[in-house]
Write a structure and sequence with these properties.
- With 137 residues, the chain is mostly beta strands.
- 12% of the residues lie in helices and 48% in strands.
- The protein has 2 helices and 9 strands.
- A 9-stranded mixed β-sheet has the order 3-4-2-1-7-8-9-6-5.
- Strand 8 (106-123) and strand 9 (127-133) form a beta hairpin.
- The longest helix is centred in the first third of the chain and has 8 residues, at 5-12.
């Protein structure tokens, strides 16, 4: 994952107070505003938008020659909020998501931003697991 210049500088410091925080915007076909969550214990305001705390993890796949990178997104399902939204969404319409990396020292500066499509959601009591990829097919 590529970082901004300031992000690279923070990772090279021997000591830093910075922590990297992932923000996730999920654009559901029938909603005007995206669902916004962060992998933090408290809400984060980024560029005027509030991202609610919700545990999630993105696991990037190993890049293979001649293939597009893909990843798995695991979202904590204790509150059932994201699961309910996905269940009510038309499975034939693509769901777009933005994964944004920010620094805790500069909440409005984007270190990295990637757009993915959610696919193949598997929902259980503990988590929602989706495959995410760069293309919507």
């Amino acid at each position: 994952m590529a970082l901004s210049v300031s992000g690279k500088e923070e990772t090279l410091k021997q000591e830093t107070a910075a922590a990297f925080i992932h923000l996730l915007e999920i654009y559901l076909p029938d909603q005007v505003d995206p669902e916004r969550v962060c992998d933090n214990v408290e809400a984060i305001t980024h560029n005027g938008d509030v991202f609610s705390p919700l545990g999630f993890e993105v696991k990037l796949s190993e890049e293979a020659k001649d293939t597009l990178p893909s990843a798995t997104l695991d979202i904590n399902n204790v509150s059932r909020e994201i699961a309910q939204l996905l269940i009510l969404t038309n499975p034939f319409q693509p769901i777009t998501c933005n994964l944004i990396l920010i620094s805790s020292l500069e909440l409005d500066e984007v270190q990295n931003r990637q757009t993915f499509y959610l696919k193949n959601a598997v929902i259980n009591r503990e988590k929602v697991r989706c495959q995410i990829s760069y293309n919507d097919t």
